[in-house]
Amino acid sequence: MAALIDAIDVKRKMSFEYENVPFCCLEAEISTPTARGGQTLVRLRMRNMLTRAVFDKTFKASDKFKEPDLQTVGASYLYSDGDGSYFMDQESFETLVLSNEMVGDAVDFLVEGILIQIDKYNGNPIGLQLPIHVELSVAQTEPAVRGDTASGGVTKPAKLETGVEIRVPSFIKEGEKIKVNTETREFAGRA
Fold first, then answer.
1. Options 2.40.50.140, 2.30.42.10, 3.40.50.2020, 2.40.260.10; which CATH number does 133-190 get?
2. Is 6 exposed, middle or buried (0-12, 13-18, 19+ CB in 10 A)?
């Protein structure tokens, strides 16, 4: 029997099951009434972990949620095609397939062999978590203009090996490996 979670105990980044669907809490706000006998309410901003939809919903503090059957496994990226992206579970060595909708724009940071985390709900893959930084090679960028390298604030566009385009400092050259922040999609340093 899965443990029950009171709505008032739900915190940011916590997972819970509501109407047989796993959700992740993005924000929790508790409002306590000033009048006696008023109910304490909990407003949750939550993400449906299956559809990725985000919405707000208000619950009574005493409402209960089931703990979802969620599991996170380490996996390495193999390849993508028209049917989705393929990963190898690092423990069981089975191939896991995520649809293009599940992968979303994370595909911009997937290179062969990269280690990621795959979320499973009731044993089925439902999404992935990228590391905060990934190392990618610069496939195409303009050469530095003489005189621009001294001032650190000058950036230029660079196309990376996965096809994603970001802004990098002017001293970065083609073929160089750089670190990219997967949350902000910004240059994070040389690899």
1. 2.40.50.140
2. middle
What does the block give as tokens for 11?
């915190």
d(CA 104, CA 127): 9
pLDDT, residue 76, reads: 95
Query: Strands, DSSP E only, in 82-131?
Result: 84-89, 95-98, 115-121, 124-129
Output the furthest CA–CA distance in the chain (Å, rounded).
72
- Burial class of residue 44 in the structure, from the number of CB atoms within 10 Å of its CB (0-12 exposed, 13-18 middle, 19+ buried): buried
Each residue of 112-154: pLDDT tens digit?
999 999 999 998 999 899 999 999 999 999 887 766 555 557 8
d(CA 103, CA 126): 9
Domain 4-66 identical in fold to domain 133-190: no
- Decide if 75 contacts 115 (C-beta within 8 A): yes
